[in-house]
Write a structure and sequence with these properties.
With about 300 residues, the protein is an all-alpha fold. Helices cover about 80% and strands about 0% of the residues. The chain starts with a helix and ends in a 5-residue tail after the last helix.
Length: about 300
């Protein structure tokens, strides 16, 4: 893999995860809007943006080529469902003042990725990785005992995005970012419309609950969705899962700082201990991955 390509992919990843980190701040514009309704509007807006970009870039041929592959299309449909679950958990967490729990989910995501690699890619965990996974699980257990409830939002965010990342990595070599985003977004549309319909039937339209700010905030959700997902897909095509693992900490760090020090969400001792255990597991995983990356780089034969 060429150095310029890798560098470009790394910048795409940094941009995507930084963007996702500030989304909880952006979503404050939409407070008061029903979460399920907001998901529906988000998917509708994303579909509009996707087709507008395909038209603007004359990408119909690339889109048609991807659709001719049953394997790639099926994978992207599954990715659409995974990202819909992720969006739903994330939105419900942010709009119910549980930003810290969503950040926990993204902190856990690297550990989930390690487990998924074992289950679906046949990789074996080294001792330090087993320790890291154990520390992460212990951190969640401490929070469960301290709060008396399972952090379902955080776990759902972690697992759903882990599955999404795995799928995108597997199809990244044959699917361009925009075509992939378009297909997976359209795949998420039917379920999101059902969710939206149920919400409207129960509460009526709430999109105007926060006035003009909420309406504009909702209308721009298509771009807010498309920009980081396209950047992420572009990164996944260019760099390894190892490199992606290093950059994905940006989003939960930003979200954690926002939830703890701006939203002033509760941080009792058991939550600090739980987060500390998760952070310790991430240090182990990152150190191990970095060490392997450095050793692999040194072992490569130099060009004459």
């Amino acid at each position: 893999m060429s150095e310029p390509r890798t560098t470009t992919g790394l910048w795409y990843a940094i941009f995507a995860y930084t963007f996702w980190g500030v989304v909880p701040i952006y979503l404050q514009l939409t407070r008061g809007i029903d979460g399920f309704e907001l998901i529906g509007w988000r998917v509708i807006a994303s579909v509009v943006v996707a087709f507008a970009l395909v038209a603007a870039t004359r990408g119909w041929g690339r889109l048609a080529a991807v659709l001719r592959s049953r394997r790639d299309t099926g994978s992207l449909v599954l990715a659409g469902f995974a990202v819909l679950v992720n969006w739903t958990a994330f939105f419900l967490g942010v709009l119910s003042d549980r930003v810290l729990e969503t950040s926990l989910g993204y902190f856990l995501n690297p550990l989930v990725s390690v487990v998924l690699a074992v289950l679906f890619l046949g990789e074996r965990l080294r001792p330090v990785q087993w320790v890291a996974v154990g520390l992460g699980a212990l951190g969640v257990l401490v929070m469960v005992i301290g709060y008396g409830e399972v952090p379902w939002i955080g776990l759902t965010v972690a697992v759903s995005f882990g599955i999404y990342g795995l799928i995108k990595k597997r199809v990244g070599g044959s699917v361009d970012a925009l075509s992939g985003f378009t297909i997976e977004t359209v795949a998420a549309l039917p379920a999101s419309l059902v969710m939206m319909g149920v919400a409207i039937a129960g509460h009526g339209l709430t999109v105007g609950a926060n006035g003009a700010a909420g309406i504009w905030g909702t209308a721009l959700l298509g771009l807010v969705t498309a920009i980081p997902l396209l950047a992420f897909a572009s990164a996944a095509r260019r760099i390894s899962l190892t490199a992606l693992a290093f950059t994905q900490y940006l989003a939960p760090i930003i979200s954690f700082l926002f939830g703890a020090f701006v939203m002033l969400e509760p941080m009792p001792l058991e939550r600090w201990i739980g987060f500390a255990l998760v952070w310790a597991s991430l240090v182990l995983v990152s150190t191990d991955l970095l060490g392997r990356h450095i050793r692999g780089h040194r072992a490569r034969p130099r060009a004459a």
